[in-house]
Every structure is written in C-alpha cells, then in structure tokens.
Amino acid sequence: MATAAATLPPPLPAVRRVHHWQERLAQGLLVACCAALILFLFAPLFMILVKSVQDKDGAFVGLLQFQQYFETPALRQSIVNTLWIATAVTGVTVPLAFMYAYALTRSCMPWRGFFRVIALTPILAPSLLSAISFIQWFGTQGLLKGLLGGASIYGPIGIILSSIYATFPHALMIVLTALLLSDGRLYEAAESLRTPTWRKFFTITLPGAKYGLVSAAMVVFSYTVSDFGIPKVIGGNFSVLALDIFKQVIGQQNFNKGAVVSLILLAPVFVAFVVDWIMQGRLQSQFSSRAVPYAPKPKRWFDGAMLAFCVVVALLLLAVLGMAVYTSFIKLWPYDLHFSLRHYTFGLIDAGVIVSFWNSVKMAAATAVFGTMFIFGGAYLLEKTTGMNGVRKLIRLLAAIPMGVPGMVLGLGYILFFNHPDNPLNGLYHTLTILVLSTVVHYYTSSHLTAVTALKALDNEFEAVSASLKVPFYKTFFRVTVPVCLPAILDIGRYLFVNAMVTISAVVFLYAPQTQLASVAILNLDDAGEIGAAAAMATLIVAASSLVCVVYAGVTRLLLTRTQAWRKPSAAG
Amino acid sequence: MNTPYLQLNGIRKSFGRFEALKGIALEVARGELMVFLGPSGCGKTTLLRIVAGLETQDAGTIVQDGRDISRLPAVDRDYGIVFQSYALFPNLTIDSNVAYGLVNRRDRRESIKGRVRELLTLIGLPDSGLKYPSQLSGGQQQRIALARALAPAPGLLLLDEPLSALDALERVRLRGEIRALQQRLGVTTIMVTHDQEEALSMADRIVVMNQGRIEQIGTPREIYELPTTPFTADFVGKVNVLPAIVEQGGVCRVGTMSLVLGRSDLISGTAVKLYLRPEDIALSMNGAKATNTLPATVAKVEFLGAFCMVGVALDTPGVPPLVLNVPRHAVAEAQLRPGTAVSVCLPPAALRILS
Fold it and tell me: Are residues B312 and B349 in the same domain?
C-alpha cells in the first residue's frame, strides 16, 4: 500500500490542517488587528476620497471640485508656495544635518554625545515653539530684526527658518544611522591603496550615505509640506496647502473642499513616502552583519573645524529653544525683562488653560501605553504566528500607510468618518479616546517598524520550539518575547509619548473644549496675542517630554544592567 | 517485521510553482536514527517540518505510533525538536530552558527539578543550571537544546541540522555524543543534514534526497558501497565515472580498452556508466597481472594528510583520467610524482554499473 501511494500519487484533495484553539486565538486576534486598522485608518481616509467627489449636499460631482480648485488662482498659489518652501527647507536642512552627522561620526572632536543630545532637542518641542521663538528674535519687536534688512519674518522666511529647526533632528537621525552603518574596512582598504582623503569621501562616504540622504530629504520634505502649526503662527498671509485645509474646514466648514485640498496635499507627501520606503529598504540591505565600524583617528585641523561647526549649530538650536523658554519666564518681551512666573500662574493656571496641559499628558500617556500594546502585539502576531497570509499582507500594507499621510488629512478623515450621523461610533467624536486613536494611527508606521525589527532579531524557531513543548504561544510571548524585546517596547512607548505631546495637525480637528490639548492651546493663545503664555505652554511640553526621556534613559540603563547576564553577546560564536 | 513507528505516505508539497516534495514515502522503525541527507533545496528540511507539523503537506499521510497525525497541529503532536540555531530562550536560565516544557504539564516542582538535573547530567553539563545560554559555547548550547527537547520524554526526536553552526572539532565530538545518547534512550530520531560524513557516522539508515524525491534508502554501508543511482554515488563520497559499452561475456569497452565486469547479465551494446571509488583502485609498481590492470602515468599528487589524492592518466587513449586515494607512506615509498609510470588495477567487484 505504501509503495503504491509513492509511485502513483492519487489526485487527493488538499490536506486541510486541523487548527488548534491556540492557533484560532492567534488568528482571531490578527483579524481583530486588521479590522481595527481598517476602521481607524483606512475607512477615514476612504471617506476623504468619497467626499472629494461629492458636493455639499452629497451628490456625486466627479472631479468638478478639483477643477474649481485649480481655477482659483489663490489656491493654486498655495501649491506653488508649499512646494518651494518645502524644497528650500530640504535644501538647507539635509546638508546641514549631513555635516553635523559627519562631525559626530568621522571626527574625534570632544563632547560628541553632548552635541548629539542638543541636536535632538527640537523633537521634544511642538513645531509651534520654533515659530514663536523666531517671532521673538526677528518679529516686530525682535532683537535681531535688523538682520533681515527690512524683510519680514512673517511669511516664507519665518516658515523656512522654523521648519529647518523642527526638521533638523529628523534628518540628523537618518543620516547618522547611514553614516554609522558604513564599513570601516572599506576605509582601511582605501588607505592601503594610498587614496587621498577627498577621494575617500567621494568614493566611500558619500555613496554609502546616499540612500540615507535621499531618505532624509524625503522625510524633511513631507514634514514641511504637512506641517500646519508653523505657517499658522509665523506665516502671516502666506498661504500653504496645510493651512488651506484648516481654513476650509474650521473657517468655512466646507468639508468637501477640505477633502479636495487634502488629496492634493497627499500627493507630494505620498510620492516622498514611496521614495523613502524604497530607500530605507536599500539602506537596510546595504548593511552587512560583518561590517566593522569605522573608528576615526584624531586630526587636529579637521577636528577643530568640525567642532567649530557643531558649536555654531548647537548654539543656534539652543537660541531657538532658549528664547521660547526665556519668553515664558519674563514679564513682557522686549519691554520688561524681569523674571516672572505670571505667564504660568496668570496666563495658564488662572485662565484655566492649564487643563489642556494635563489633557495632553493624559492623552500622551494613554497613547504610549495602549498604542505600544497594540502596535507591539500586532507586530508579534504578524511576524510570529502562522496562517491567514492574505490578512498578513493587508496588515503590512496598512501599517505602512500612516507615514505617508499628513496629520491634517488623517484628522479630516476622522471628522468625516466619525462625525457622520450614521456611524455607530460617532459617540467617540470629541472624546479623549478619539485623540488617542488618531495619534496612535498617525505615528503607527515608525513604531511598527521598530517592533518588527526587534522581533526579527529573535530566533525564528522560538514559536516552533514552544509548540513542540506544548506551551501555548501567549505564554512564550509573555515569558520570552516581551522580556527580550523590552528595550524596543520602551522605545516605542517613549516615541509615542513625545509625539503625542507635540502633535497638532491631526488633533486640531478632533478636540472639544473640554479635551483641548496643550499644542492646540498654544495655537489659540498665540491667536489671542498671548505669546508669553503660549511660550509657557510650549516650555511645559518640552519639560514633560524631557522628563519622560530622562526616565526612559534611566529605566533602560537599569534594565540593561540588570539583564546584562543574558543580553551580552555570546562568548563563543 | 514490527510495525514501523513512523510512516510517511505520498507526501507532496509545493511553494507556489516550486515543487519541494514530489511524493515521499518512507518508514522509520522504532528506536532508529534516520538521517535525511541531500544538497540544499532537496526538500529534506521541508519534510522534517511537515513531520513536525510546522508546515502542512499538500497531500499525503503521516502515521506516528499507529495514530494518524497528518492533519494535527504541531501542539497536538508528540515530538521534541532541535534547530541549527539552538533557539534557546536567552532570558531564561539553563534550568528554566530545560524545564520549559515540563512546567506546562503542571508536574510537581520537585519532580521537575529532578528531571532537569537528570537531563543535565545526561548531557554532561550538570553544573550549568544557573547560567544563561549566552554564557555557554555553541556546542554546550546545542546540548541544552537537546536536553530541553528530550525533557518531556517525546516519542520522536527531530534534529534539524543540529551541528551545522558548530566549529569542526565540536561537531565531531557532539555527533558522537548525540548518537550515544540516542542509542541509550532508544528514542526514534530523524536528523536532517547536508554533511555526508555526519550522516554516515550517525545513522542507522540514510534517506538520500534530491530535488524533492528519494534517491535511495539504506544503511550507511549500503549507501556508500552499493549506490543505486548516479546521484547517490556522486553525492556520497568521491567517485570515478567511466562511460562504457557492454560487450559479450561480461566484458565492456571503455574508449579503446576492455574491462572485465563482475557480472554477465547485461545486454550487449547497452551504454552504461561505471562507478569506482578512489580507494578501490589498487596501485602497483611492478606490473602485477591481476584482472583489469592497466599501465598509467601519474599526472598530479595532492597531499591531504593521511592520504594523497593521486591523479593518473591511463596510457590507453580515449579513457578519462582517474583519481586514486593512496596512503601517505605508499606515496613516499613509490616516490610518486607527476610523470611516474605506474600500473592501476580496477577490481571487477568494485566496479559499480549504473545506467
């Protein structure tokens, strides 16, 4: 019988596996994950598409509204403005970040760790902070107003400068990674062939950092295109796309027009996102595990020049942050420079605005806790369980989308979808929950990638071993996967917290008076001319984010020390 | 014959268009160590994973100990598994790793402790219980992985290239230990490897696989001495291949020369290939007149330690060059160097004919 089966295989129906309830559980959770992403990411975005081809009464009008849009010269101008501003910001930020990263990785200058931290501080501040700060320096009453030679900071100059400040750390991190990944042996080989320094730079360093540079450019470009806080505060009458959405939706309550602008804004960001995605993939594949890190040798002139450059950049960065903090602690810029807490006591606490700070902290904490649980859990189910390959592909695709969607667009989608009278979930609208949900979705992609990277570093056979030992997958998840991935999990939590503290674009459409967030409060205070109180609020955000980062660093260090016994690399191969 | 412990019937598996397994049938006896041997991509690992329930076959049945497990998920099957990468849980101590599958059975704490100690002693690492995996060498980690797999006393042990990640010395040491342990416990075992030496030294029986099919099943000696297919002859050990035409009376023609075969049942005129192991060719200096002795000239001598690989060109035209294994001392004695005239003898009994 056995031999018959071997030589003449009968056309049997495909073998259908019996599924254990544990597998069913994992697959059920996976489907739930997918459903959540469809509900809170895909459906809102889809609503924008629908709205863009409908008129106010809901009748289908095709591309009529796009046509009307392009026929309005003022709106058309916004497209041009947005693109050239973003191009200019990219053109300045990326070379600056590259030089800075080059100094940090290729020179032996002192205090490199310190310079790295300083350069990353803008991440802790809402983008509005830089706009406020530049107004204080260069505005009508600005100390350095004369430097502009009669030009006004309220407009493209202000937007560009503020955006450079806000995007610098994002670009720096990407370029830094690209430079750190380079293989030291290439330089040794070049040296043994007596290659001059400039040639090493153009044949090894630059090609090695190529993908990182393109990726950084794309990130800076989309950040600038998407940001609406900076042009709102410092843009004057200069119109850009993100601001147009805000005006259409909040000012004119014209959701359909808003949807049209959203889609136009989405286009460049999505192109940049796709380019970035491809570049990131190449950056990863370029890295070989056998690479030896490059160790720079001291060179007096070069190190000195690099140090001078970093000192200048760091001072500029600190001047921006410092001015905002300073403004919050004096009576009235520039007339009364006496130390005062009145912006905090008077402007925030007595005015009742302080509530929005606590709202932000609550929202950020909830985003960090629930977001991390959902994102890491989802990534685990995606990477480490089996079956339902179609659902898996869909989740991978959905998880990549948020990075290519500006916050304004996501926020508008949320209004359209959740504020719809027929949506059973419309009770969510105006709650803190919807703010948390939109923020988790907004920052999903990076966190998801961090989780996936950490999970991929684990041995692929843990789950197989557990199954052979008849241990349910969730036990292994809690006993092995989570403890081993804890550094990455904490990292995701911190990332979500910090971003939730500073985010404005998505949430500006979704808050209610009682759920106003700190970043929105800054906007409103600035609108009301309360620039001191706005600076105070921005300072509080920076303080809260810094505190979380310090706690994160402390906990991580403690954790690594305590688990050093098993985390250190294997002694024998 | 006893009923086999594990029976595979008509196992097929495709990944997209690639047919990884094209109908595999085999039986593993109770207590036997069976090795799946083949080049990478031959389907041996896929077959092991199907036995483990980590992949699902497209067609075919698996019966283990009288129970049809073809459709069961991995959790419901009875086996322990060891992977090339060890897959030890890095954050758990050695004790906890070995006890991982025992804790879940709600055994009493004392009995778990006892079992862990017993296993650690068995694998020769009784004092490493409180260490973490990263504090052990690769070979030690793989022993722990073995202990963890054996702890719940599974009916079947699966080893997926367990020695491939180790350095050469560890590999040889550990393969002896695994084999001894397996025989002592009498646990039915399947091991996957691409290393023929490992397969020959450890297996009760070897399954030679190629491109999703079984080429040959047999004991290590059978596989080496009596290969039934050209692939097996070529993949396991070194071999000389001579294309030949069968002639009348148990003789065949290779180029312009005649060779006596050990058998005369072949039809005259058939084109065959003769397979001959390098160590089966005898070398003589004094022109002894054994059957199939031919004059030749040394072309190349490659020193390999205990043996030298000697390449010779036969003086008869139209015959491909041969490779011989000659002990180091014999090479020195005969002062073999390129150009030396020698006689080689191809014993009829050692000529294996495969068409």
Answer: yes
Per-residue pLDDT of A496-546, as tens digits, reads 999 999 999 889 999 998 999 999 999 999 999 999 999 999 999 999 999
Tally Cβ neighbours within 10 Å of residue B271.
10
Indicate the angle between helix axes A73-106 and A112-120, nearest 10 degrees: 160
B144 and B212 inside one domain: yes
Q: What is the CATH number of the domain that holds B104?
A: 3.40.50.300
CB-based contact A488:A560 (threshold 8 Å): no
How does DSSP assign B163-177, residue by residue?
Answer: TTTS-HHHHHHHHHH
Residue in A15, A22, A483 nearest the CB of B59: A15
B138: contact with A, CB 8 A cutoff: yes
Residue B1 inside a domain? The answer is no
- Residue A44 near residue A410, CB atoms below 8 Å: yes
DSSP string, A65-81: HHHHHHH-HHHHHHHHH
> Which among B224, B215, B133, B124 is positioned nearest to B178, based on CA atoms?
B124
Contact A424, A519 (CB under 8 A): no
B213 in reach of chain A (CB within 8 A): no
Non-local (6+) Cβ contacts of A87 within 8 A are A221
User: Which position has the higher pLDDT, A135 or A571?
Assistant: A135
> Which chain A positions have a beta carbon within 8 Å of B75's beta carbon?
20, 22-23, 467, 470, 472
Q: CB–CB of B91 and A17 under 8 A?
A: no
B89:A470 CB<8 A: no
Best residue in A1, A15, A481 for a mutation probing chain B (most B CBs within 10 Å):
A15
Residues 6 or more apart in contact with residue A440 via CB below 8 angstroms: A367, A370, A371, A374, A375, A496
* Domain end call among B204, B235, B266: B235
The A residues from 467 to 496 touching B (CB cutoff 8 Å) are: 467-472, 475-476, 479-480, 483-484
Judge if B178 and B61 occupy the same domain. Answer: yes
C-alpha–C-alpha distance, residues B228 and B222, integer Å: 9
pLDDT tens digits for A191-224?
Answer: 889 888 889 888 888 888 888 899 899 999 999 9
**Locus of tokens 């090339």:** B84
Whether residues B59 and A569 touch (CB distance < 8 A) is answered with: no
Among B209, B235, B261, the domain boundary falls at B235
